[in-house]
Specification:
Layout (H helix, E strand, L loop, with lengths): L5 H8 L4 H16 L18 H9 L4 H17 L1 H14 L58
Helix pairs in contact: 1-2, 1-4, 2-5, 3-4, 4-5
Length: 154
């Protein structure tokens, strides 16, 4: 299983992705807080973090890459010893791929015609409002040569 991306964890902890991102973070939080099923057939229980402490520390400082790395590592180790957790974490990762976190390429193109008003280029914008004047009126053909409404004195 691939480790959970540090960039994704930082982005989600910081509130990226709007409502979908909040839901993904809530899903991960609930998953981490689930009972930890680990141990072998002899009842030996390895000392492994559930990931909850790392999750809480990342929430305290969402931009801290080191804390995100610690959470990613805790998730990977727990997934290695808890098959149920591994299954649910893999499903969570598939859903989390749908969250736009700002980590990725963006290509913006404006072409053809005349644009009136702002052109805002980038990626993953939300809650933006533009107040712009209406576009200028289209040029009129009044007074053009050969136009019957032209001034007869000319």
């Amino acid at each position: 299983m691939d480790p959970v991306s540090v960039g994704l964890l930082v982005a989600l902890a910081g509130g990226a992705g709007g409502e979908v991102g909040r839901q993904a973070w809530a899903g991960l939080s609930a998953l981490v807080r689930r009972p930890f099923h680990h141990g072998d057939s002899r009842g030996q229980v390895p000392v492994v973090s559930s990931g909850e402490a790392e999750l809480v520390r990342l929430v305290e400082d969402p931009g801290d890459q080191g804390r995100a790395q610690a959470l990613s590592t805790a998730l990977a180790v727990r997934a290695a010893v808890d098959e149920d957790f591994r299954t649910h974490l893999a499903a969570w990762q598939e859903q989390a791929k749908l969250v736009r976190t700002g980590d990725g390429a963006v290509t913006n193109t404006v072409s053809g015609g005349t644009q009136h008003g702002p052109v805002f280029q980038g990626r993953d914008f939300s809650n933006l409002t533009f107040t712009t004047p209406p576009p200028p009126p289209a040029p009129s053909s009044a007074g053009a040569p050969g136009d019957s409404t032209a001034d007869p004195a000319s």
